[in-house]
Amino acid sequence: MSMDKSIGSASVRLSKKMTRIVNLYLRSYHLTTEQWVVLRALHEIDGITQKELSHRTDKDQATLTKILDLVEKRKAVIRVANPADRRSFLIKITEQGRALVEELTPYIEEIFIRMVAGIKPEKLEAYQEVLGLLESNIEQLLEQTDLERRNKSERNI
Amino acid sequence: MSMDKSIGSASVRLSKKMTRIVNLYLRSYHLTTEQWVVLRALHEIDGITQKELSHRTDKDQATLTKILDLVEKRKAVIRVANPADRRSFLIKITEQGRALVEELTPYIEEIFIRMVAGIKPEKLEAYQEVLGLLESNIEQLLEQTDLERRNKSERNI
DNA sequence: TAAATATAGTTAGTATACAAATTATATTTA
DNA sequence: TAAATATAATTTGTATACTAACTATATTTA
For every residue of chain B, which 3-state class applies, written as one string? Predict the structure, then answer.
């Protein structure tokens, strides 16, 4: 079997299913997986720029703007002018948002306990290790692709 | 570290990056990863209903309709009336579509060879095994959630 | 120091995933 | 056998990911 299917499609399929199941469980809280990830990040480190938040959550600026609009609307976060840079905001989690994260954290961990049921800890560790290696390799490929694109641009001048 | 982050977010992040890099490489072919998956499936087994195709590619009907619209537009597939059921089509890959898959198959495999560079085969096998176990566990959770939802519906009657 | 260049966040557009609703058609029920 | 129910594909709507363009602001360059 090709790696395209056995690694590529299998990884993407698992990711979709993880998102699907977590979204189902979060539904009654009117929260999506991606919104949760943003709130969780702010609960850990609060009052950061959207740029920083986009790095921490691996979401692009455009998508993050939309997600923040939604969680701001439900009063889980607020955007505060950044005194150090008028182009940016500091994103702060509200007490309401904090309470939500604190309520949901054990609930979501319970979901994952079910997800990994029957899988040996060493296997899970191996899984995580390969996740990291693949991610690093891809990051390098992405950088190279960036370089190639930039080189192309320079040639056009 | 919570499994939510170490398993959940890490898996989703990897999946996004895989999709991102493959999309970059496919860009010059004016093809996206998801369109590729559909064409690949049809190259393997052709002339199947959209319903069957949606199972084989793990895509919901609504999304698949859109993707088929796009690949049909570029003449990579055609929809043919299904003589056995007037509600459905048989989706057939064209010669053009077939040629594209045959051209791209080694190219994409090359991408994955780069992605797994430096990772031992046993590690990759372990990764794949855990992928499968997690997916099975989630499928079971999804079924249970379905049952719960149906039970709720019945209670409302 | 003014001009050139870069950047933070937003908007607009395309693609995809998912849910709900719809219509024509098939299947099951009574 | 007619009515009730289910189903294939499509449409509509929301959320997310990604790209490109934009505007106000910051930084660098000459």
Answer: CCHHHHHHHHHHHHHHHHHHHHHHHHHHHCCCHHHHHHHHHHHHCCCEEHHHHHHHHCCCHHHHHHHHHHHHHCCCEEEEECCCCCCCEEEEECHHHHHHHHHHHHHHHHHHHHHCCCCCHHHHHHHHHHHHHHHHHHHHHHHHHHHHHHHHHHHCC
